[in-house]
Amino acid sequence: MSTPDRNNDSEATESSILTLKRWPDLLDPASLIALAWTLAQIAFVIWPSIDTLAQRALHVGFALALAVTMFGRDRSTMVRHAYALLGILAFVPALYIAWNAGYLTGERVQGLDGVTPVQFGLGLFFIVALFEAGRRSLGLGLTIFSALFVLYFFLGPYLPGALGHRYSGLERFVDTEFLSLQGVFGVPVGVSVSTVFYFIFFAAIYDVYGGGKMIIQLAFALTGRAVGGPAKAAVVSSGLLGSVSGSAVANVMSTGIFTIPLMKRVGYAPTFAGAVEAAASTGGQLVPPVMGAAAFIMADYLQVPYQTIVLAAILPAAVYYLALLLMVDLKARAENLGVTDSSEHSPIREVIASRGHLLIPLAWLVYRIVSGFPVENSALEASVITVIVGTLRAGTRRSLLTIVEALIVSAERTVVVALPCALAGVVVAIIAFTGLGTKFTGTMIWLSGGNLWLLLSFTMLASLILGTGMPTTSAYIMAAVLLAPALTAIGVTPITAHFFIFYFAILSMVTPPVALAAYAAASISRASASGTGWSAFRLSMPGFLIPFGIVMHPGMLLIGTLGDTIWGLVTVIFGFGCIAIALIGWFLRPIQMPWRLLFVALGILSILPDLWTTAAAFILFAAATAWLGLNRDKHRLGQTAS
Q1: Looking at the structure, do residues 195 and 334 belong to the same domain, yes or no?
Q2: Residue 5 in domain
Q3: Helix H segments across 139-210?
Q4: Disulfide check for 219: which of 40, 180, 233, 335 has CB 3.0–4.6 Å away?
Q5: Across the chain, which distance is largest between two alpha carbons, in Å?
Q6: Angle at Cα 282 formed by Cα 279 and Cα 286, nearest 5°?
Q7: Distance of alpha carbon 557 from its chain centroid, rounded?
């Protein structure tokens, strides 16, 4: 079994991304396109005067060309070259937009100036290629969802009542989606090109130099000897690594190869082991400083500095991982699971001595973001610092070929962010120009009767449904456009409303029927994908209280007074603690269904804003604890006698 190796520092074991063996491997068409994309992104930072539309068009063009070219990998030479040619053709429309960006944004009047035959042909070809690449790269979920909105765009004039609209026509569609900053090249792509790429770039560089392995070793050093140590190490390492990677599935594949086998070794069932890793990796998108692409889009929607989002996310993220730690601890105690041997993990002093210098880039990244520096500059600076400090130590020094590969991998990993952002841009433009967003908001408020709890419940369900089979970024964008306005319309502050849907867009990664993070974990644990998905869902259920707690107690987002913050934390922690007890069925001793139902009720009551309701929940919890504690010895005697 593979465990975190504390002695082997060879390049081959440092990172999960190393595939190039020699320089000629760079001649692969996909590698060349990826390298060109990364160099273009670096140029955008060096020369920020490059037109915004040109940057976004090139970003999507490179993503589309790379995705198409990668379809031909591991095929015959003829097929590989055919896909490379298709990739180049897919890049041509984006190149046209970039070349004419000054005219399109400065002189041309959208909706008044006609669409030329060249623009019409290039636009249709580009959008069709985007949908096909999305289908093959991202699956049917987002592609079908986006296609339904396109269908709504064209059928609008024929629909009855409030659903109908007059904004239609193929020429207008191409004009809106291809020739402006409102469609494919809209806000979601803007965030991908100006922010997300650079953090993916930093994560790749950091991974190459052994930063990911250091984080895993630190987690095992901190929690390895505790009850349920491997599961707790999975929670801690996934949270720390997720704060850099911002991707649930990538997080699972990076840390799960170490944590899942160890969890199985000490007695956790394969489905539960995979579920722990999936839930913990999903939560990595909640952890500052990176958090994932959706967080950057949130900052753009709210028109606030990214550091505002980072600061607001600190306490909810900490509470989420505290809930997971409590769940795995209760599970370990309920099943009397053992601990790992000390030989399975390195002492913390040894980890710090060999790799502690890799904490410097992380510290610098956090400092620069919190200080208000542009996030893309901060990520690039942290990447450069990683190369410098990594090269200064022989154990983490890397070859130039390895660094070049990190540049290539950065682009390859960004494909699964850039393409959904482009498809989401198509949908956002249709929602805006047809007025569907306003209609949807009115419908949500009408269905809930203006009741906050009902509206929150509807919003939660809709966010989870929107996230079915979708990347978190796309799920958040759809929810932000369709659902957040309904919450703000009845008085929820914008940042609170967006954090509410942000959490559920993320939790959709572990919510059946399509739980992508859980399926990735199941491939490692060799357990049922469906069983792992449902187990991950149950494991993350205490976290479902956190978004409601944020709305009831905005102090958790560092809004308001210190007293509001402390009170919010106390009630939410108490609430998910009760839910965790009910789900595991163990508190001081095994508990049966009546007790479990009681703890569920106490958990829900605790987050209500009414002081007396919360006080009653605390009193009932104290009484239940006393009763279960007094009868614990009798229960043990009964078990022994049987």
Answers
A1: yes
A2: no
A3: 140-155, 170-178, 187-191, 197-208
A4: 233
A5: 88
A6: 120
A7: 19
Neighbours of 116 (CB within 10 A): 10
Specify the pTM.
Answer: 0.79
Domain range enclosing 603? 435-641
Residues 472 and 491 in one domain: yes
Residue bearing the bigger pLDDT, 351 or 641: 351
To the nearest 10 degrees (0 to 180), the angle between helices 140-155 and 170-178 is 130
Please tell me the predicted confidence (pLDDT) of residue 7: 36
pLDDT one-digit tens code per residue, 415-464: 888 898 899 889 888 888 888 878 888 888 888 887 888 899 888 888 88
Pairwise CA distance, residues 602 & 592, whole Å? 16
CB 475 within 8 A of CB 466: yes
Report the amino acid identity of residue 61.
Answer: G
Which of 130, 162, 189 is the endpoint of a domain?
189
Query: 514 in a domain, yes or no?
Result: yes
- Is 267 within 8 Å of 525 (Cβ atoms)? no
The phi, psi pair for 590, rounded to 5°, reads -60, 140
DSSP-based three-state secondary structure for 555: helix
Residues 206 and 177 in one domain: no
Quick check: is 430 in a domain? no
Does residue 429 lie in a domain region? no
The size of the chain, in residues, is 642
Angle at the Cα of 509 from the Cα atoms of 527 and 147, rounded to 5 degrees:
120
Mark whether 274 and 165 lie in a shared domain.
no
State how many domains the chain has.
3
Q: Report the distance separating Cα 219 and Cα 226, nearest Å.
A: 12
Q: Are residues 184 and 211 in the same domain?
A: no
Neighbours of 144 (CB within 10 A): 12
